[in-house]
Amino acid sequence: MKYLVIGSGGREHCLAWRLLDDGSAAEVYVAPGNGGIEDRFRLDVNISNFPALEHACIDKNIDVVVVGPEAPLVDGVVDYLTEKKIPAFGPTKKAAMLEGSKLFAKQIMEKYGVPTAGHRDFTGQDSVLRHLKTVKEFPIVIKLDGLAAGKGVCVAANPDEALEFVLSSAKEDGKIFLEDYIFGEEASVLGISDGDHVETFIAAQDHKRAYDGDTGPNTGGMGAYAPAPIIDAAKLRRVRDEVLIPTVRGMKAEGIPFKGILYAGVILQGDDIKVLEFNARFGDPETQVLLPLMKNRLGDIIGASINGTLSRHSLKFERRHAITVVMASGGYPGDYPKGKPVKGLGDVSDRILVFHAGTKTENGAIVTNGGRVLNITAAADTLEEARERVYGEIDVITFEGSFYRKDIAHRALKRPMSSK
Ligand SMILES: Nc1ncnc2c1ncn2[C@@H]1O[C@H](COP(=O)(O)OP(=O)(O)O)[C@@H](O)[C@H]1O
Ligand SMILES: [Mg+2]
After folding, report:
1. Which pTM was predicted?
2. Is domain 119-179 annotated with CATH 3.30.1490.20?
3. Which residues line ligand 1 at a C-beta cut-off of 6 Å?
4. 2-90 in CATH: which number?
């Protein structure tokens, strides 16, 4: 089988690696890919240009397209390719609204009894500003509707922060909603669906803040690990039964069956599990710790999601632990330089997986090309061991100005029974 993976991050390098590694694929092309992808398998295609993607598929005889990021899904890339008889993995444009519109997701959750934080919606700056004057309890969460690349949510600690966010970010006639703040620990639970059936991945936890101790600005994610012990087997079943299954059933009942990855960002407060958001695709960097532990062939479950035969499969995971640490460019998530030579990539042992994110090749050498540059990854019998492997070798790889968090998985390692 020949696959085309759409995207350019660590997630996409990991998807391509896994499709080849488990024998799903004879060849994997990536558009546009990054420096981790061999030159001859990188396709220099603008991923928002669907006819160009279709052309690339025909040119390379692609059997299946796997879409990494949310933007092309929300723009309808799966609808477009399916129409052209090219099998594509992921939700249709309408189904991807579970990620593309937080308000739509909220309405689906409320209609089908999926636990989520209470909310109140508004149209336009003025109405929300008027309401904010009456709010007495902080923090409060303010969310914009629509894809915002991580910039559409504000957890406002006081009225001034709320005001500033609304004035600077909310469009005059845009949809905006306030959500009850929930104090708790977050985790990511991914499901895969074929529109009817859902299979659940083990839980993962990412680390959004730039610096150790969960301080500093928000980022796309500085590292992740799996399984996350805060979601034990019983809680994982509850997320499946109370969140993923009712959402997939609800979408089907609405006439918009959801195929692809349904990623629930949940928050746990005691025994309470609530959904903060849905994503309609693999997480980055969660994918980098889930796929190394998955026993199934990735191509099999992707095919089953597309063909509607997922109930014949059951997702299985090794009883091991995986961790990934992001090496980032100095300055990220603010401004950072590009084009810094990356050294030492050939010197790490085979106990480490290095997924490329913001890299490219220049005159045959790897240079930095983004904020999140590399994902240094390991799987081992215990979380401690996986962590030692990563941190034991990470400094072998160097580029000017690089930084990484030294405390990935700290929440699990604080728990006494974490590695069992
Ligand atoms: N209701 C809530 N209570 C507490 N924290 C929240 C709530 N909603 C969002 N957050 C915080 O804001 C972050 C971003 O919100 P999320 O809904 O995941 O949007 P996005 O990932 O699109 O920015 C969450 O990871 C969480 O830390
Ligand atoms: Mg989120």
Report:
1. 0.96
2. yes
3. 117, 141, 150, 152-153, 155, 179-182, 186, 265, 276-277
4. 3.40.50.20
